[in-house]
Amino acid sequence: MSRQCELTGTRRQIGHLVSHSNIKTKRTFEPNLVNVTLASEALGQSYKLRISAAALRTVDHRGGLDGFLLKASEGELSPKAARIRRALKKKLTQAS
């Protein structure tokens, strides 16, 4: 499984570890990924996702999984999250 957030697309970043003598060695900055189960109120279903802690705070701020997915662009979502987003949009257009 790749070290990538399924909602925001945050990936591993590469940089330098700089010592006191200014010697630079390569290192990686891993995203803080957590396994969570988020519920979609419109679809009435729960989904297991692997997202970053920052994305989890953003989901709470935007009013849950439904609010986050409606504001997100499909290009940054994982295939699983994009599938949920399409189902959500389909359900909301049928309800209107």
CA radius of gyration is 17 Å
Q: Major sheet, described briefly?
A: 2 strands, antiparallel
Strand order of the largest sheet: 1-2
User: Structural class of the helices, strands and pairings?
Assistant: alpha+beta
Number of helices: 3
Unreliable parts: none
| CATH topology call | Ribosomal Protein L24e, Chain: T
Shape: elongated
Number of domains: 1
Topology pattern, helix = H, strand = E = EEEEHHH
What is the share of helical residues?
A: 25-40%
Tell me the number of strands: 4
How confident is the prediction overall: mean pLDDT?
95
In the CATH hierarchy, what is the class?
Mainly Beta
Taken as a percent bin, the fraction of beta residues is 25-35%
CATH architecture descriptor = Roll
Supply the key terms.
96 residues, alpha+beta, Ribosomal Protein L24e, Chain: T, two-stranded antiparallel sheet, 3 helices
Question: How is the topology of this model organized?
Answer:
Elements: E1 13-18, E2 24-29, E3 33-40, E4 45-52, H1 53-61, H2 65-71, H3 79-95
Structure summary:
The protein is α+β, with helices and mostly antiparallel strands and 96 residues long. Helix content is 34%, strand content 29%.
Give a structural overview.
The protein is of the alpha+beta class. The protein has a single domain (about 15-95), classed as Roll (Ribosomal Protein L24e, Chain: T). The chain is about 35% helix and about 30% strand. The protein contains three helices and four strands. The protein has helices at about 55-60, 65-70, 80-95; strands spanning about 15-20, 25-30, 35-40, 45-50. The strands form two sheets. Strands 1-2 form a two-stranded antiparallel ribbon. Strands 3-4 form a two-stranded antiparallel sheet. The longest helix is centred in the C-terminal third of the chain and has 17 residues, at about 80-95. About 20% of the residues are buried. The model has no long low-confidence stretch (mean pLDDT about 95).
